[in-house]
Task: structure prediction
Amino acid sequence: MFIETCTLSLRLEAIEAVGSRIGIFRFTSVAGGALPAAAPGAHLNLEISPGLVRQYSLVEIDPSATQYAIAVLRQPEGRGGSMALHEQARIGTVYKASVPRNHFPLSAEPGEVALFGGGIGVTPLLTMYRALKARRESVRLFYWARAEGDFLFRHELEQDPGVRLFTTGTAPTPRLDDVLADIPATTRLYCCGPEAMLAAFAAATKDRPAELLNVERFAP
Result:
């Protein structure tokens, strides 16, 4: 995998808890002023410590381009990046980061869109959902998480008629293929989540037009 060079110097400005295991980390430029612009679906590389670089999708797109925000799930069983941020990050710390890049772009073409997110993989889809709503496009977001406390922005999203939240720790929970069965074949689809979810998405969409299918793996 090509890893973008960390050439930006970012200052950690704020940490916000938005779930039982999720924190939003907000960064601004050390030099002040605007940062390189980013679009929905974009990610950046963050050097958490020397030799420890991780990729994070932006969870918000700042129109003024004065800050970047990422959502990080605390994962004790992970590779160390999330725990380092949750346990060691301090306001004012300066980090190196890459310019945002986008391998999961949102199409500019009009038409109905459905977004499917699993766990922290929903992060880039949230920026897409907000952008499509701002464009007054027809869009729906289907979001699965293990428990209510694991949903990003749960209180905001559960009030939105275009969003469906599914808690996998309770039964019955609609499956991905059940939801897809009610979505027209002409709908543009985006999916990001764990491997099991992406495998289910691939199986359920194998007869749909390939040009309408967009997937990102939320994994190294």
